[in-house]
## 1
Amino acid sequence: MRHRIAAVSAAALLTLAGATGIAQAQPASLYAPSAVVLAVAQGEDEATVVRASTLSCAPTAQGTHPNPQAACAALAATAGTLDALLAAPDQNRACPMHYDPVTVTVDGVWQGSRISWKHTFSNACAMSATLNGNAVFAF
């Protein structure tokens, strides 16, 4: 008798817990979070941020970035490998050979995974030529 009461009580608790707990365990959205902070800084290690922008890509493109749709599309095209942003430099653009480093960063969450990416260019012209009009840092 004691085992039957315990079994019925356990079943009732599981049913009650299941009915209330399932709603809390469901994700708030069908989309994995994709929200990042983009920054352009003057210098290398102890760089001073010159400008920054926020970008959220799921479920819709939004943020302080002036063209969030294009920036989200460009980030999505990298398939998670942000070095792909550097893949199409303009070979016809000549830049001065002076060293005045500019560092770009992407920090946040992309498709549910934490990301932190940084690249330093020798100067602003080299950054512009390497990113070649890419929408991600066009702010």
Note: Confidence is low (pLDDT under 50) at residues 1-25.
## 2
Amino acid sequence: MSLHRHNPAELSPPSGFSHAVTATGSRLVFLAGQTALDGAGTVVGETLPEQFEAALANLLAALAAAGGAPHDLARVTVYATDVADYRVQAPQLGRIWRRLVGRDYPAMAVIGVVRLWDEQALVELDGTAVLP
């Protein structure tokens, strides 16, 4: 299995994402949206960085249960209830990402939403991974 990240020079330099990812492998893993729910089903964390870290950890736990690792992520979508706050918090969110996932970024998008399934949730992440 291999993922190749493509960032063409004619596009703006990516920061925290790759413009395109090509993948070869034998298994696709579709990861359901994860918020900052703990094992008891309670949203943990009051700030966006706290909830982002918990949601990302949940996404990675689901990926690990399917036999994958962070470097297998080909695509991640972030749904944020406050995109302006997400932009302000981006440096801290980037540090959390690098600590949990590393510096290989999947193709990503951030989408503003009115609210998420759990009313207290500020962010949700879903994704696709390619496993050997």
Note: The first strand starts at residue 2 and ends at 6.
